[in-house]
Design a protein that fits this description.
The protein has 129 residues and is mainly alpha-helical. 88% of the residues lie in helices and 0% in strands.
């Protein structure tokens, strides 16, 4: 017998034995529950699936954030590039506009010439048919 149970060679203490049995049962119950949890393959598989889903959701959120930032950067680049191109086009066109405003007869002569060429093309096409 152990020293817990009542000492050396004497009659064991009944209350100490009952307490030891109660403790042993509790430990045994915990062990059985742990073994049952390990043996429950379905529950473990569900837990694994939930963990994988959480990881995938986190990765999707991270990828979405990165893509959003990339799109914002490209949008900014395109916007600033288009603004610069528009500014250059305006600057390049200003001398021509001012020339036409000073001397509109040149612009009218060019427009008449273009219309004459288009009219001739249409006349020749009509004769071939």
């Amino acid at each position: 017998m152990s020293e817990k149970n009542g000492g050396s060679g004497g009659k064991p203490d009944l209350d100490a034995l009952r307490a030891e049995i109660k403790q042993t049962r509790a430990e045994l119950g915990e062990t059985v529950q742990a073994l049952a949890a390990k043996a429950d393959v379905k529950a473990r598989a569900k837990e694994s699936v939930e963990q994988t889903k959480a990881k995938v959701r986190a990765q999707v959120a991270e990828a979405t954030g990165k893509a959003t930032e990339a799109v914002k950067g490209v949008t900014h680049s395109v916007t600033s590039g288009a603004t610069g191109a528009l500014r250059q086009a305006r600057e390049a066109g200003e001398p021509a506009v001012s020339d036409v405003r000073r001397n509109p007869s040149t612009a009218v002569a060019v427009a008449v010439g273009v219309l004459a060429v288009v009219g001739l093309i249409l006349i020749f096409r009509g004769r071939r048919r």
